[in-house]
Amino acid sequence: AQSVTQLGSHVSVSEGALVLLRCNYSSSVPPYLFWYVQYPNQGLQLLLKYTSAATLVKGINGFEAEFKKSETSFHLTKPSAHMSDAAEYFCAVGGQFYFGTGTSLTVIP
Amino acid sequence: GAVVSQHPSWVICKSGTSVKIECRSLDFQATTMFWYRQFPKQSLMLMATSNEGSKATYEQGVEKDKFLINHASLTLSTLTVTSAHPEDSSFYICSARQGMSLRGYTFGSGTRLTVV
């Protein structure tokens, strides 16, 4: 069975501050892990994905995530938050894509 | 890149009627498509997995007769909400997988269904 847990349903950061969104996974096989962003009333946009290659994955819009097997984590980070980063973020584990509960990111000007 | 088109984006229907939502892979063949449901402020819940030419596999608790899924071609899957009720109002999202690669998932833009 596969699942992901996102710690913190709401995260607020100041503009320019570090963004850290947490995701822990559970998987009996080597996982494929994904981060998606969702803007209001829209579908999902892929930020980045881990597919057993490099453990540090760089995605779009300056986001990156590091796969840590020992911690079963795949946290999403961005060095400097922009106002446009305010959205809902979902961590997911493949193949059938079981999603975490999501983290709503608010960026404070 | 791979594109998945979902139509309609918004639909309002009366209770008791049926609504069909289409999910098309525009530039690739999708052997597998997935349907999700998302309630406000909540995560996406996988409803069913649809394989071309075979019956969909529904997640536990999803009514097969209520949510009819058809994947008649490699580029089209449809979700029909039958005899819709207000509690069926939700945001429905499809995704398509290109081939068997776990890397090739693309999501549609979603359909907001409101049943009045």
Number of helices of chain A: 0
What is the largest interface, and how many residues per chain?
A-B, 22 and 22 residues
Helix coverage percent of chain B: under 10%
Q: Mean of residue pLDDT of chain A?
A: 89
Averaged pLDDT of chain B, please?
89
Order of helices and strands of chain B: EEEEEEEEEEE
Which radius of gyration of chain A do the C-alpha atoms yield? Answer: 13 Å
Oligomer: heterodimer
* Secondary-structure class of chain A: mainly beta
Derived from helix and strand composition plus strand pairing, the structural class of chain B reads mainly beta
In terms of DSSP E residues, the strand content of chain A is over 45%
Task: Describe the protein in words.
- The complex is a heterodimer of chains A (109) and B (116).
- Chain A has 109 residues and is mostly beta strands.
- Chain A has no helices and eleven strands.
- Chain A is globular and about 40 Å long.
- The mean pLDDT of chain A is 89.
- Chain B has 116 residues and is mainly beta.
- In chain B, the strands form two sheets. In chain B, strands 2, 4, 5, 6, 9, 10 and 11 form a seven-stranded mixed β-sheet that branches. A four-stranded antiparallel β-sheet of chain B has the order 1-3-8-7, with no helix packed on it.
- In chain B, a hairpin with a 2-residue loop joins β7 and β8.
- At the A-B interface, β5 and β10 of A face β5, β9 and β10 of B.
